[in-house]
Structure formats: structure tokens, C-alpha cells
Design brief:
The complex is a heterodimer of chains A (140) and B (280). Helices cover 22% and strands 37% of the residues of chain A. Chain A has 140 residues and is an alpha+beta fold. A five-stranded mixed β-barrel of chain A has the order 1-2-3-5-4. In chain A, a hairpin with a 5-residue loop joins strand 2 (55-61) and strand 3 (67-73). The model of chain A is unreliable at 13-24 (pLDDT under 50). With 280 residues, chain B is α+β, with helices and mostly antiparallel strands. The N and C termini of chain B lie far apart (76 Å). Chain B is globular and about 55 Å long. Chain B folds into two domains: 2-44; 65-253, no CATH class. In chain B, helix 1 (2-14) packs antiparallel against helix 2. The model of chain B is unreliable at 1-26, 28-33 and 35-46 (pLDDT under 50). In chain B, strands 1-2-3-4-5-6-7-8-9 form a nine-stranded mixed barrel. Classes of the chains: A alpha+beta (140), B alpha+beta (280). The interface between A and B is small, with 9 and 9 residues.
Chain lengths: 140, 280
């Protein structure tokens, strides 16, 4: 394969990739940073089971005992319900561990690729087509 | 009226009146009955003309049609004088003021100050309930025995009001338009709406609610082309007590009137569609 062919293939792939977000409600990459994997453990403060993206807000207690709130984007309600997640599963105060990616604006927002519930179940909670798989968060 | 009279005749015949005697008493009675019936009918017509309103095959009022309010409610639900972005209006809140909790009133004032940018409707978001009803654009109702479908011109939303005696779901979402379950009280459609999210406003002046909002609507025909819409709003996170609104909705009767799509969320992207590869 010549360099020209590779370049052309890449260009075509690029076009296809750039059109994908049109099908999604909005792209993972529009808001979240694939280079910033995170894992956050906390308790549910609020769960918005809403279209097109659900949001889970959790209170996270830091090593210094300070509580900060994080917001994580989840998939659409229908997809989550199929996987057994509903308002009843994630009531206020429920413990949850979320693995995903931090928001590009570097505030306390993120995208939840996978979530581990208090009962030990690990569920794919993200719905974006262009979201990468879980990566280990860097050790602090 | 005819039925009434023949029933009266039947009764008198059964009670053994002779035809000759009946003639006199009967005509007097007929006259009295006619006067009574006529006055009864006219007084009902003054209140609301129930005899002529459109009805479904099952006898329930049929609200099908295209409706719109003429009130300035969407600018501000409360009584207000004119502002640069708002015509004046008497408001549609019973008693004038919305009973906000102190903390919520702070948020409401903040919303008011930022209304030019923060009103979710300006972003093209779904209007929610009851705002869909008094937003100054038409909406259409399609009705059958088991439900009403409400389609506003603004946005891409479709609201179903269930009239099949079903209850709210046990495991709800946080819907933009809530979940609507209705019952008939005579000719009034009473709708219980709950399970909202907190992302919509009640008007463009920043009146708002939380996801604990519950709305009880009462839809009633005043005449075949006019609906009286009443709603009671309660939300223990935001209001100190339930409060009521009333608006009048008028039927669009212009020839060939129809809804025209008003989907604003994508307006910013319209310039890219259809794609014009040659004009980069």
C-alpha cells in the first residue's frame, strides 16, 4: 500500500468519523477528554433519568474529608433500564464507583463508561458511540 | 324537548286523565313546560354551551383541533407592566403572586436577571407542562377514546395524555413533559401530571420548578371553539403551597390553518445542511 493510498484511506475514515456525532445526540469527544481517564467513588446525590443523556451527581469525600460533588453523564433512560438501572437502583445515598473520562473543561464533570454498584454489579452506563473503553486512572 | 313532552303525555295517560280534560290541562302544562325548558336551556347556554360541543363516539368531549391562547402569560405568569422585552399582562395566577419558598425566590430573581440567556425555550428545549399550553404558538390535539396527543408547534415534542384509566408508572423517568394520566369529571378532563425533570421554566421571566413538580389540569369547553384551561401547580421544593392558573384557549378557524415546524435547536447547524462540499 502506497503512502498515497494510506493517506486517502485515513482521509475517508476521518470523514466517516466526523459524521458520526450527527447520529449521536452529541459526541463523547465534544465534551470529554479521552486522555483523562478517571475513577471516582462516591454516594448518589441526584439521578436525572432523562433523555437524551441521563446525569448522575455524586458526593465524593476526598482524603482530607472534604466533600465535592461530581456530575457524570450516563446513557439514555431506555438503555439504562435494559441494563437494570432505574431511579430505584440509584436512590440518594447509594454507593457507586464510576470509571470514565473527565470533562474537557476540567471541572468536576465526567463521562461514565462503567459503573460498579453497591451490590458488586459492574454495568456499562455510557451510551456514546465514540467513547473509548475504560482505562485505568493514573495513580495520584 | 319533544321527548320531554311525550314523556309528560305518557304519564298523564297512565294516570287516567280523559282526553277532553287533558286537552285543557295538557295545553297549559305544555306551555309551562315549554317556558321552563326554554329558560333552562338558555341559562345553560349562557354558562357554557354543552349541547353543541364536539364529542367522541363515547360521548366524551372531543378536544381535537388547533388551539392557542391570546394571553401574555408566557412572558410572565404574574401581573406585570411592560418591559423592553415584554408586553404588559394581568397575569394568570389566581391571587396574583406565586407562593415561592424564600430560597426559591432568590433563584427566581436570578433567573429573571438572566432571562435573556437562560430561558430554556430560547435554547429550543421542550417547553414542559403547563408552558406548552400558554406558549404563544399553536398546538394541536388529536384525540381518541384511550388518549389525547398534544403536539406543540414549538420544538419537537409530543405529549400523550392517557385516558384509559391507567396509573402513573411505578418506575418513572424524569420526563420533560411529565407523565399525564387523566380522568373525566363530567365534561371536564382532569389530568394529573408528574415525574418531571427540573430543566424547564414556567415562563420566559424565570418562574421555575423542581423535579418534584405536580400539575393537575382541568380542560373544559366553554363553547365549541373555546377551552377553559385551569391548572394547580404544587412543588414542595419550590412553592410554599399549591397555586392555580387559568387561561382561555381559542380554536384556530382560519382556512387551511396548520402547524409549521418550529424546531430551533438545530438552527445553528442549518448552514451546514445540506452539505456543500465545493464551498469550503
Amino acid at each position: 500500500m502506497s503512502h498515497k493510498t494510506i493517506a486517502a484511506t485515513l482521509a475517508i475514515l476521518g470523514v466517516i468519523a466526523s459524521t458520526l456525532p450527527v447520529n449521536a445526540h452529541h459526541a463523547f469527544s465534544a465534551e470529554f477528554d479521552a486522555a483523562k481517564p478517571i475513577t471516582v467513588k462516591g454516594v448518589v446525590a441526584k439521578f436525572e433519568l432523562v433523555n437524551p443523556h441521563s446525569w448522575l451527581y455524586i458526593d465524593v469525600t476526598g482524603p482530607d474529608g472534604k466533600v465535592t460533588q461530581w456530575g457524570f453523564e450516563f446513557g439514555a433512560p431506555f438503555g439504562l433500564k435494559e441494563k437494570g438501572i432505574s431511579k430505584k437502583t440509584l436512590t440518594v445515598g447509594t454507593e457507586i464507583t464510576i470509571s470514565g473520562y473527565k470533562a474537557k473543561n476540567d471541572q468536576n464533570f465526567g463521562y461514565a463508561v462503567e459503573s460498579t454498584l453497591a451490590d458488586g454489579r459492574t454495568i456499562k452506563t455510557g451510551g456514546a458511540q465514540d467513547a473509548p473503553a475504560v482505562q485505568p486512572a493514573p495513580k495520584k | 324537548m319533544n321527548t320531554l313532552h311525550s314523556n309528560a303525555l305518557q304519564r298523564y295517560k297512565l294516570q287516567g286523565y280523559k282526553p277532553s280534560r287533558f286537552k285543557k290541562v295538557g295545553s297549559a302544562l305544555l306551555l309551562l313546560l315549554s317556558v321552563f325548558t326554554f329558560s333552562a336551556l338558555t341559562s345553560t347556554a349562557e354558562a357554557h354551551d354543552n349541547t353543541k360541543i364536539p364529542r367522541l363516539a363515547n360521548g366524551k368531549p372531543d378536544f381535537s383541533g388547533i388551539w392557542q391562547t391570546t394571553s401574555a402569560a408566557d412572558f410572565d405568569l404574574e401581573p406585570h407592566s411592560n418591559r423592553k422585552d415584554t408586553p404588559p399582562g394581568p397575569g394568570i395566577v389566581e391571587g396574583g403572586e406565586i407562593p415561592y419558598l424564600p430560597k426559591a425566590l432568590v433563584q427566581r430573581k436570578k433567573n429573571f436577571e438572566n432571562r435573556a440567556t437562560d430561558d430554556p425555550a430560547l435554547k429550543g428545549y421542550t417547553l414542559g407542562v403547563p408552558r406548552t399550553v400558554y406558549y404563544p404558538e399553536p398546538f394541536q390535539i388529536f384525540q381518541r377514546t384511550r388518549d389525547l396527543t398534544v403536539v406543540p408547534q414549538f420544538g419537537h415534542s409530543v405529549r400523550t395524555i392517557h385516558t384509559n384509566n391507567t396509573e402513573h408508572p411505578e418506575d418513572p423517568n424524569d420526563w420533560w413533559l411529565g407523565d399525564s394520566r387523566a380522568k373525566w369529571e363530567g365534561d371536564t378532563l382532569v389530568v394529573d401530571v408528574k415525574h418531571f425533570n427540573d430543566k424547564t421554566w414556567l415562563d420566559r421571566s424565570g418562574n421555575f420548578h423542581s423535579d418534584a413538580l405536580q400539575v393537575v389540569e382541568r380542560w373544559k369547553y366553554l363553547d365549541p371553539n373555546t377551552i377553559e384551561y385551569k391548572a394547580t401547580l404544587s412543588d414542595e421544593q419550590v412553592f410554599s403551597k399549591p397555586w392555580n392558573i387559568t387561561v382561555i384557549l381559542y380554536r384556530h378557524r382560519e382556512k387551511n390553518f396548520q402547524l409549521i415546524e418550529d424546531y430551533r435547536y438545530t438552527l445553528d447547524y442549518d448552514q451546514y445542511y445540506p452539505p456543500k462540499p465545493d464551498q469550503k
